[in-house]
Amino acid sequence: xxxxxxxxxxxxxxxxxxxxxxxxxxxxxxxxxxxxxxxxxxxxxxxxxxxxxxxxxxxxxxxxxxxxxxxxxxxxxxxxxxxxxxxxxxxxxxxxxxxxxxxxxxxxxxxxxxxxxxxxxxxxxxxxxxxxxxxxxxxxxxxxxxxxxxxxxxxxxxxxxxxxxxxxxxxxxxxxxxxxxxxxxxxxxxxxxxxxxxxxxxxxxxxxxxxxxxxxxxxxxxxxxxxxxxxxxxxxxxxxxxxxxxxxxxxxxxxxxxxxxxxxxxxxxxxxxxxxxxxxxxxxxxxxxxxxxxxxxxxxxxxxxxxxxxxxxxxxxxxxxxxxxxxxxxxxxxxxxxxx
Amino acid sequence: xxxxxxxxxxxxxxxxxxxxxxxxxxxxxxxxxxxxxxxxxxxxxxxxxxxxxxxxxxxxxxxxxxxxxxxxxxxxxxxxxxxxxxxxxxxxxxxxxxxxxxxxxxxxxxxxxxxxxxxxxxxxxxxxxxxxxxxxxxxxxxxxxxxxxxxxxxxxxxxxxxxxxxxxxxxxxxxxxxxxxxxxxxxxxxxxxxxxxxxxxxxxxxxxxxxxxxxxxxxxxxxxxxxxxxxxxxxxxxxxxxxxxxxxxxxxxxxxxxxxxxxxxxxxxxxxxxxxxxxxxxxxxxxxxxxxxxxxxxxxxxxxxxxxxxxxxxxxxxxxxxxxxxxxxxxxxxxxxxxxxxxxxxxxxxxxxxxxxxxxxxxxxxxxxxxxxxxxxxxxxxxxxxxxxxxxxxxxx
Amino acid sequence: xxxxxxxxxxxxxxxxxxxxxxxxxxxxxxxxxxxxxxxxxxxxxxxxxxxxxxxxxxxxxxxxxxxxxxxxxxxxxxxxxxxxxxxxxxxxxxxxxxxxxxxxxxxxxxxxxxxxxxxxxxxxxxxxxxxxxxxxxxxxxxxxxxxxxxxxxxxxxxxxxxxxxxxxxxxxxxxxxxxxxxxxxxxxxxxxxxxxxxxxxxxxxxxxxxxxxxxxxxxxxxxxxxxxxxxxxxxxxxxxxxxxxxxxxxxxxxxxxxxxxxxxxxxxxxxxxxxxxxxxxxxxxxxxxxxxxxxxxxxxxxxxxxxxxxxxxxxxxxxxxxxxxxxxxxxxxxxxxxxxxxxxxxxxxxxxxxxxxxxxxxxxxxxxxxxxxxxxxxxxxxxxxxxxxxxxxxxxxxxxxxxxxxxxxxxxxxxxxxxxxxxxxxxxxxxxxxxxxxxxxxxxxxxxxxxxxxxxxxx
Lengths: 340, 397, 459
Known about the structure:
heterotrimer, A: alpha/beta, D-Maltodextrin-Binding Protein, domain 2, 2 domains, 5-stranded mixed beta sheet, globular, disordered N terminus
């Protein structure tokens, strides 16, 4: 018995050590052998990442996870979604629990550097705004002096809020909550005059209020919030995969390749489209994927414009206009480097 | 060990394998090795992970600018220029504030309910019983949600505040009171207050001695009260009433000016107080029941009324039984104040382990500091309570 | 004292005449007297009574009206609970609970797979009754079921997937192998000579092979049968993997509580023994662990489990998000359990230890056979009380993002489908009833055990 115990302990200890010393191979190779992509998403923000009653996830951020899964496995559903609160999303990414954080996360310098993250692009240009009751009768955030503002803690919102009121020399009271639900509840019950978060979030959270029409989003946008997917430092190949998945969706929209016509486009003679769908060149191999990677993405998920309209645009409850998120050719900011 | 003492063991050498001493050493060395290995591997993994993930480590963040605001703060703190270190102190002081007030209030409420449960008044004792059963069998978090969301939030909004006498307003932003402004010369009032306290204590000691010698009783209560209130009041008028109040004004959104007590604080305080009082009540009841009935009967036989019997005979003896569990209830209250994070009261956990951890990303350091704080509070409290306990303990001859 | 009569008493202060008899008091018994003695015996007491009665009279009818008379019992969405839609004052909106109760029980666990949760619930209830009911047969078997078979089965059933199925195959192979081994051994009694002391060997050989087989080997047989049944289920219905992210509601609350009790009890025993040990290093480490954990709030332990645990293990072994708070809760409960059990160990008279030693029992034999059975018995009330605390504390996992029962209630409160002025009060009342019934039931049980033990002590 005793020797058995000792043997077990030694065996366990050895396993532990070996495990610790195991060499790191590339994340892409690990995901391929694992057969599933783990994707950190929001705990439920309408339009960006939210599970329905059957636990099926959808949203703009979720579509990116699906696109990567489609590029790797030719199947958009080999994704394990891990809902993360804003408080522990970075720890989850840092600790390797998720391969990718696609959870409306703002790209800032400190996150890019000292938190050890790499942002792979911007899939939604956002900015922080305020939601107030109509009956307050104000039309500008500059008239919020003396107001109580509800916000979620552990976000850039908290810092922008402080900056905004400081810059405009206004007094205010901040009430910070740990979860988005608590924050909305506090705002709805009248604890605060205003609720602040990214404008996209304001539209989404407004749907949760019992009378959404009684609340308005103020016109001021007080910060730059480029939201995008993030990966860990130290695996450039994986960063490329995420970055080019996003770029492929943008390029597809620019070139007019959609979910519906992508099969026809395989026969296209346009060299740009040929490079995109993989009928010319070996661009997929360069990032460790098959050459029809972008074809798979468009086939299963669609291009950026389709994803946008389906999740947050006219085809959704949120009805957010493209605005800054239109393609550069249409006066927006979305611009992808060419595939060549 | 016992084998050595019995002496029945044959004089021949015991096999090393069965020698209890040797075995003891082996066990301990094995345990040390296992624990050491666990710590070493955890530490090396942590270092490895931190390096791989390029997370900054160390306590350098302490002096970095915080850049966020906190609503309730006992020391000056603002987004401009304050550091994470100051945020830590803001949180710590808020924790200590709610814990200190909670301890005082829950002691009063707990003693009242505990004594009520033993009361001969049937209605009172049954009500006290229901209170204790309900409070003790529901999770504190649920009670906090109840107080915060169901009781305080339905209060009227700032424009329709309930006006109480003395320019005090109650609304869903909290309780807004006139803010005292201390003019020059107010220090004299504070000083006179302390002098009055010293005088009162001196008089009390003297009157006790007199009573022991001559049996004369002095009106201790009214004299103490008169000195402590009267003297500062007198000084206050002499130096020309150096106290004014800043009254709350109706602003666009809220009442501005005045001293504001936030609903998060009130909800946490009510929740902690009522919850802990339920436990203290049981401790008090057990303590009183532990005093044998003969003591009460003896006091009655001496002619003491119910009041003095309780005060002079029962409570002092019950306190010996009550104090140890009372201490652990105080500690529980302090630890439970960390639930503040659920309702947005800026205590240590909310400000430091919540916001600061997220802004800096340094989980190891922040969680370690937080734990160290609670551990220190626990150890210091139990130290003081042990000293007090020793003084209260039965001196046996 | 002399037997002097009144007339010839020597002292002046002794009364010389007998007093007139006083009129009998109005009543010393009956309801009037009871009211007078218990409710209005003095001015303070009377005031108290009036205040209490006022509280009862003002609160109880309102509560009854709100939660029962004016309540809405059925409806499809919030329109059923809005006063201006149905044209009468509206109290509690029980329709909302009726609509969402599945979510409160199972969280987001896939609807088609919920039978798996139900089986685990039944096993859990069986295990609890077996452990707590004093006259239940085969207690040892019950303990084995509760502490070993049930947790493994729950893991297999709830999680499912390829990993669980291969583990199940291994378990069946293992238990089957052991059963065969024991069967062979019991038909060849002379083999028992190899490990049995001669004194016990006679008893062993005297029994029939079947007796020998069934007596001690029930544990393995039971495990074999249960794992076999699960394997049949897996073959017929299939056990696809259900990620822990989908678990929620009462299921998670019970899971945390069960993990807490199953792991904290053995761990608590070890820590308590360690703290009472005469070996300084073992004692020191136990004390440090116990005092450290008891000195910090559970929330910080949960934060530590959530944010620091993943840093302490190699990246590939980063624990599951649900597993982290489970580890935190188990360690936390173990420290409190250790202190309760230490109390029991200290209450065992020294004679028991000395008696055991004089029989020549070693340390572990003494503890296992003599001390722990007695010590654990007398601290059952303490264990149950610790467990009540643990059950209430399961709500804190909300704060690290686990969907326990309270969190599911909170989550439905922001759902516009049921957003009415009374939804919140209804949700909290439902949660309160659930927690109260569980905790109050446990505390009643603990009081009953205490009484029974006290009766045994009085004799």
